Amino acid sequence: MVLEYSTEWQNWLIDPYAVIGVPVTADAQRLMKRYRSVAKLLHPDRYIQADPALRELVTQLLTRLVNPAYGKVKDEVSQKEILVLIRLQAQQADKDGADLQTAVARSLKSQPVESVDSFYEQQVSAFSDRQYTDLHFFSEATRSLMELNAVYFQLKHGEPTWRPRRTGLMPTPSTPQSNPSQSSHHSTQHSGQTIVPPDQTSNHLYARRHYDRAKHYAQTSGWKEAITELKDAIRMDASCGDYHSLLGFVYFKQNQRGMARVHFKQALKLNPEDNLAKRFLPHVTDDRASATSDAKGTEKRKLFGFFGR
Fold it and tell me: Which residue, 242, 124, 140, is CA-closest to 172?
């Protein structure tokens, strides 16, 4: 089969994330890392001995698609405009009831809310692994990535703008697989597309990463950021008392005593021996101002000790 560049692919620059092969949550470092990886795969020196048509294809992909796509997402102003545009188009498509063309996008749309992030990241990883290593798969992979991004926006409609992420929900393979659809007997195929079943442990692992970031923010008084991270952790895994107790403490620091009390109690329900919740719950159930004042005078030192254990 002769591979040729299609001018229709230029339209895909409306979603440069799909062209590059990264999730829409990727931060600047992650975008740059992926771009360099793709640019290396498409470098002309790799195709010196290749058929002229193939050399022309990779040149066109790099100069007309990948480079312009990266130019759009690396600029903060342009990046924000692109994300808004993709979000609006996704919302409009959802409102119009537009049919999804790829099985993987339909599968993402049917995921329970707690699995959306992990499933989305896993699928982006699976398709991007083949996107530029198997150029026969490029068109299908990019189209699937575009629909994954659109569905992700639909599912996240109404939520606060997410924070860019340096890493995904699971480790990226050090060596790209030549054919992810045949790499694991656990994967399933729909019309030639690889759909990786969500790993139940990935939710717990990613929730823990949110929690670890929240601890860092708490240690540096980044209370708002810590709240956001902990909400994400609880959404991924609501059964861990540590997440609730730390969120209770952060709310306590923000003088939101009611919210602090709710999460301290939930932490103790999940783990009656949770030290942080046991230590601070009395300060949000006792209305005496002196108790709160005394607690705030020492909680930072105690928190550092808690994290150090």
Answer: 124
Q: How far apart are CA 77 and CA 133, in angstroms?
A: 31
Q: Which CATH number applies to 203-308?
A: 1.25.40.10
User: Among residues 148, 153, 17, which one has the least CA distance to residue 89?
Assistant: 153
Task: Return the residue matching tokens 């290396």.
Answer: 40
pLDDT in tens, 158-201: 555 455 555 554 433 333 343 433 333 344 554 455 555 555 55
- Indicate the SS3 state at residue 182: helix
Given a contact cutoff of 8 angstroms between Cβ atoms, the answer to whether 181 and 136 are in contact is no
pLDDT for 222 equals 85
The answer to whether 268 and 298 are in contact (CB under 8 A) is no
Those residues whose C-beta lies under 8 Å from the C-beta of residue 250, and which sit 6 or more positions away, are: 214, 218, 223, 226, 227, 230
Q: What is the dihedral of CA 35, 156, 111, 95, to 10 degrees?
A: -110
Nearest to 232 by CA among 205, 201, 210, 264: 210
pLDDT at 129: 92
Burial class of residue 127 in the structure, from the number of CB atoms within 10 Å of its CB (0-12 exposed, 13-18 middle, 19+ buried) = buried
The C-alpha angle 135, 79, 138, rounded to 5 degrees, equals 10
Residues in the chain with pLDDT < 70? 1-2, 157-203, 206, 286-309
Residues of the chain with CATH 1.25.40.10: 203-308
Predicted confidence at residue 182, as pLDDT, reads 38
